[in-house]
Request: fold
Amino acid sequence: MKFDKKTLGYAFVNSLPIFFSYEFLSLAFGIMMSSAGYNFIWSWLVSQTVYTGAFQYVLVDYLKTGTAVTTIILTALFMNSRMLFYGIPYIDKFKKLGKFYPYMIFSLTDETYALYTSMNGKIPSNVNEGLYMFYVAFFARVYWLTGTIIGGLLGSLLPFDFKGIDFCMTALFITIFIDKWKNKKDRLSAFLGLICGVVSLVIFGAKSFIFPAMVSTMFLLVINKKLKDCRVKSNE
Reply:
């Protein structure tokens, strides 16, 4: 895979929206880790190996409360299970990148996926599609790691009370929920997620509700999909 200046520039410009979202979220994560007693090296190490923003926020609380490793692993698996479906359409394209194939799988996020899906038929003829995807993934990862380090350093150097900064991820999820709810064609998933979250919160408490909420939501969505398929077959 050869260096392509035009593709690099095109990928950089298109990745700027990711920059503005990742820098603030990763910076907040670094500050949260510092507030929990982990310096910027630990923040960087987590972002380097885990690299999933939503779960990294959850992981901070897990580290503070000494949550069991099995719970951490299962929560990470279910929180990121959507990537199994994201990646299927890009298996062949990622394979064409040769030795970078594993990296492309690891670096797939909601934001990079959004850019990949929006590029169909819109990439200039002088831009290499495979290289474009690699550069987007690379830039996104640099943005997140940079923000993590800066946040970790700020959290340890600045004499401010950063209590409440973790709400930025909550705000992001609220925004996603509202956007999902406005999509009248697909309100069921948002409704089920809300109901399962509230019920799990009441039953299991604030520290343990995420995992059962995700499992129950996924289970109900699978049931709904099966029922839809059965109705389609019965109408044929």
Residues 171 and 177 are 10 Å apart (CA to CA). The first helix runs from residue 5 to 35. The mean pLDDT is 83. The radius of gyration is 20 Å.
